Batch of 4 targets.
Target 1
Amino acid sequence: MDYKKSLWNGTNQSDIYGSYVNQDKFATVFLSNKTKCVRTYFDRIQYGTGINYDSGFLEIDNKRINNFSLSVGVLLPVENKAFSALNGTYSYGQKGSISNGLVKENYHKLSLNISLDGIWFVKRKFE
């Protein structure tokens, strides 16, 4: 679980559409492995799902533009001895609302990330 609070209210900013307010972000991720016994490459693949909620930092006519999304992903290991991995994620979310003349946005997001373990960049001392 993750929580983050951004203090936008203290910046004393505003724009023509609304005012900046303090923002709260909540995130939860669930990861699973196929098995605890790692014998093959497919045993090391991890699957995950996540839920995100963002209260929004912009307030228009006393209504916040919040954001809610669901994510699913897969983590593919790159090498046996290192912790490097390729991570692919799909997210679906909704931002805002259509009440009081505001705009609601539905979105789909694909992410592809690579994580390289630091051992890749260490020069070998012995061959």
Target 2
Amino acid sequence: MPPAGCRESRNGSSQLIHLSLAEIRRLITRLTDRRPVPVDHILHWSTWRRRRQHQARISHYRRRGHSP
């Protein structure tokens, strides 16, 4: 069973944490900003960040001897 707040991919491995309220606010702010930033870049960065957060969570549990 994946840790709380994680989404499973089709192959059963957890890859991303769920969107947090802070991340949703950040995305809305970035997408409605007056400075032109490609939407693909914003969404890619969000996905990358959530994947890294998941990896950090897994590492945190493993270092303490718990199974994620």
Target 3
Amino acid sequence: MSPADTQPSESADPAAQLPLLELRDGLSEVIDTDSVLSEAVEAFRSGTGPVAVDAERASGYRYSHRAYLVQLRREGSGSALVDPIPFGDLSALGDAIVDTEWIIHAANQDLACLAEVGMVPRQVFDTELAGRLLGYPKVGLASLVSEVLGYRMRKEHSAADWSTRPLPAPWLVYAALDVEMLIELRNAIEQELRREGKWDWAQQEFAAILDAPPREPKPDPWRRTSGMHRVRNRRSLAVVRALWEARDQIAESADISPGRVLPDAAIVEAASAMPAERDTLQKLTAFKGRGAHRHMRTWWEAIDHARKLPDSELPKQGPRYDGPPPARAWADRDPDAAARLSAARTAVAEIAEAHRLPTENLLAPDTIRRLAWSPPPDVNLEVVSTFLRDHHARAWQIALTAEVLTDAMTSEAKSLD
């Protein structure tokens, strides 16, 4: 059934009254053999216009972030569901569409896993990012399809384990729907961007996605353990670190999500309890599950190692920063910097509101903090513009914010004259 054939239901719920999005061409078979993949490559090579692309990972189930299903749709090519696991490399498919625009919702989430299988675009249109530039309060795919195109999408399999084989038919329908109307959504959003004078902004943002350098691993990833605020001393922090690292090695080796090997709650409970012997550890509530019990020797060895570390090797209480300290500490450490930050945040927020933008999409909060904490010498418009450019701000962002940020950086000095 095509979307045009569906009719709104009789319901008091406005969302339920939207026609349910259905597959126009029916559900195609999953592509998992060389011969069928070759046919798909030629079909997408001969298609016209942009291509809608999506990928499904097994977040929450697997350690890796690899793609377990790739979905595509193009005018004249139809839709395709490709299982990348039998192939490992899908560069032939990527090469067939490399010269056209790829429409991806939340491109930053999918580009890495697509590149891992040899699919790297030269041009993208990110419908989520475009929705942010247009000021939509909800920019999930289902929300935008509903708001812009008037169709209700299924959501029930968003957290499925896509490494499952064979993939159930209802999951495949859900996955195929993710690209069913991406082309129509992209075209409608382009019209809105042009009407609001934001088309050039979007073009710069899309180019920045592709030009962005690979993300550097964050220091001390163990500090992101949920519940860390309950860990009060450096010795307990060492236990968190030791358990996190032991869990990470097991999870990576088995390609299992770390939380399924040992929950964060168990790590924090052990760090808080500081058990002196293995029997005590085994009695902790969070360590009674099958997964925790399976590696009990490893957990105990990690804790015992942390307990015996010399004080000089214990982690520091606070995380390491490669930039300014947390803003909450500025008022005491540097009142002038705190005043600059407050003025800068207020000015940027006003511009964002005037243009119906999320503040973080107008200018990265970290860039504002770095500028306010340590502004360049001899602050002027050119210097601030260069600072923003060096911190990866786009031309449209600099044009909107450089002047007010220059004023914010010099306002304190002016008030002292």
Target 4
Amino acid sequence: MTVSWQLPELDDRAIWSVRVIDGETNEPLLEHHPDTQCETASIGKIFLLIEVARRIDAGTLQLSQLVEVPTEFAVADSGILYRMRDQQLCVDDLALLVGAFSDNLATNTLLHLCGLEAVRAVAPGLGYTQTSLHDYIRNERTPDLPWTPSFGTARELADVMRSLASGDIHSPAVSERVLDWLASDADTSLVADSFLLDPLAHVDAEYQGMVLRHKTGTTNFARIDVGHVSGPMGAVAYAVAANWKGVAADLRAPVIDAMRAIGEQIRHHVTGRAREE
């Protein structure tokens, strides 16, 4: 069955950046303002994982290397490390926490280990000019701090996910390691909600043969989901971002509804099956 791609109704009170591309041909399947730059919350953590994986591949970091959590960058909210009794973990486990739970404290620990400027340079070094990780995760973002933890466009973020899936980010080994950390992402509440996967167990092919590797970002004025999903009928890379900073209403309901509508078309495309089949 062929998908008739159609952009769902997008609440015009939000700023949107959307791009869905075929995973093999790179052909655009669906897009809306793909070059609009949005604040992307936790999405920039992908570039941290890329830098960690690159250093492991180069031998300058070890998977089993234990890392102390820096007290000056203590942070709570997203993740579980801040609630754990023993917070001294190895590099591999910290990266897994970032991939699985977007763990803020694990993020800051690895950022401190690698150096913020080095991680800021990852996206530009890969050729992305409008997308990057920009700062540590903070409990409060005051005017004297960088304006956002990360930013990006749908065009560049969809390409990041396509390139990871193709093994083109530094090397196949580096790309595969990053995807392995992202494989356990437990947040399937946005675009990926329509894939109907088990949120806690989808490392391997799951519902209707789909394999998902993705990252989400969430703030009180933003929802972002970027990923790569494959199935028996094909694969796509996608990036969907919505910001509504300064809007009086909380737009999460209409934003998430639109994301799910996009996700349903992606599911249909990669599986060839209608929802009721």
